[in-house]
Write a structure and sequence with these properties.
globular; alpha+beta; single chain; 3-stranded mixed beta sheet
């Protein structure tokens, strides 16, 4: 969205491709097909059966990639209704970002820890607004998309 050399039509096509992929992954997650569900299930079954946790959970790459509640950015789409909330960021210098959509707007809750010296809810929320403005101008543009979709 930020590359000034990219045409509005290219940006719109890229956005639509990303939105379609996001919707597909969201549908898979609703059907319990998200990879995190399987990893949680594996750990839970091992714990319930009194088995040692699989070696995967002891590998530092698992923790570095956010496993075990270590995501620096934790996001969640919480639906299309006005009932809404959020939870704390998972790491001291991380962010929680939870959002829902209404007919005419998107509402976002951003969380950070007060103890963080680098994370700022206000700055993060400003950047989200900037992104919404940029994406909105592309999605609502008058450029005509052909049947390439």
């Amino acid at each position: 969205m930020c590359n000034p050399k990219t045409s509005v039509q290219e940006r719109k096509m890229t956005y639509l491709k990303a939105a379609n992929r996001h919707n597909k992954l969201m549908e898979e997650a609703k059907e319990l097909q998200g990879c995190d569900r399987h990893l949680l299930g594996l750990a839970t079954i091992a714990e319930e059966l009194g088995l040692p946790k699989p070696l995967l959970y002891q590998d530092k790459s698992f923790t570095k990639s956010g496993g075990g509640g270590n995501f620096d950015l934790s996001t969640s789409f919480v639906g299309y209704t006005p009932v809404f909330g959020g939870v704390a960021a998972m790491t001291n210098d991380g962010y929680g970002s939870f959002y829902h959509m209404e007919d005419k707007y998107i509402e976002v809750v951003v969380t950070t820890w007060k103890t963080s010296k680098i994370a700022s809810s206000d700055k993060f929320a400003e950047e989200i607004q900037t992104c919404f403005d940029q994406v909105g101008s592309v999605v609502l543009s008058e450029s005509n998309l052909s049947a390439k979709l």
